[in-house]
Amino acid sequence: MTRIEISRRKALGAIAGVLALPALARAQSVTEVRAIIQYGVSYLPLMLIEEEKFLGAALAELGEPRAELKLQRVSGSTAVNEGLLAGTADVGVMGVPSLLIIAEKTRGGVKGLASCSSFPMVLNTVVDRIKTIADFSPQDRIATPANTSPQNLCLRMAAEKFLGDPKKLDTNVVALPHPDAMSAMLAGTEVSAHFTNAPFAQFEADDKRVHRVLSSEDILGKPSTFVLLAANARFVDRNPKVSQAMVTAMDAAMKRIKEDPARAAALYLRLEPSKSMNVEYVERILRDPENVFSVSPGGVMTYADFMQRTGQIKSRPAKWQDIFFPFIQERQGS
Predict the structure, then answer these.
(1) Beta-carbon contacts of residue 315 (< 8 Å; ≥ 6 apart)
(2) 128 burial class (0-12, 13-18, 19+ CB within 10 angstroms)?
(3) Does domain 8-119+224-328 have CATH number 3.40.190.10?
(4) Is the dihedral of CA 100, 224, 204, 79 positive or negative?
(5) Domain ranges (residues) in the chain
(6) What is the pLDDT of residues 129-183, one digit of tens each?
(7) pTM score, two decimals?
(8) Which class in CATH covers the domain with range 122-215?
(9) What does the alpha-carbon distance between residue 214 and residue 132 come to, in Å, rounded to a whole number?
(10) Quick one: pLDDT at residue 3?
């Protein structure tokens, strides 16, 4: 995402509030942590934290009063950004590009708490002659969810890396929601390719006509963060133990997914029922070694280099730790 889509009035007011944070905020007791997420299996660790009460357990181990995670689901990144800026949410899930932008705009008033999932974004096609991105003709259309999406940003990064010009494929791009894009490509319309992620990447891979052109790992390395958990600095300053416990809870949830993917898949479908997937299908996604749940971020500096070079942020952080709170800064990231 290259722009945070919030109204200028709301942005200026909310950012001013974040910039007014006191240098030292008095700790306060909370009974719940308000989190905003979107829909999809990428957010499964947070669903487990809420359902299995992992946050309360982590706080109990620290000798702190229990608090639990309360999730609010939204469609689109705008509500996540607005909630964090306005303080109506304590934490929220977003992509790395959004974090880079919002951390710069708020001068650190919003930072990353932990990575959530490292699912690759995949560029698929049904056109046999398209083997690499150099094979796209001016008539080929590449569907991404929005012109400001991580998929579109990654496509521009690929165009710069492999074609020498980040804008080379801009006129090929058409904005379509993932379900519509998949249907259009498989139906043989003008949509020749679809830049997508789980579960649509798996749905498409099940069709023998589809082959992969590239993935985000070809650009960002492996594993590269797909979505991460960001937090309002006011909340972290006032609740350092709760914030630390959130990272511990994330680790616990990710361990549970790895140890018992069938149970995790069943929980996911109970919370987000699907007509397209059963438990076995979701479990297959969770077992896929390409799909990684980890609190350690990946690809942050690659995004930062590109976004600074193309004017989407004014300056790049010196290291990935500069836009994350200290709880994971000793982890292996990039």
Answers:
(1) 104, 308
(2) exposed
(3) yes
(4) negative
(5) 8-119+224-328, 122-215
(6) 999 999 999 999 999 988 778 899 999 999 999 999 999 999 999 999 999 999 9
(7) 0.86
(8) alpha beta
(9) 7
(10) 42
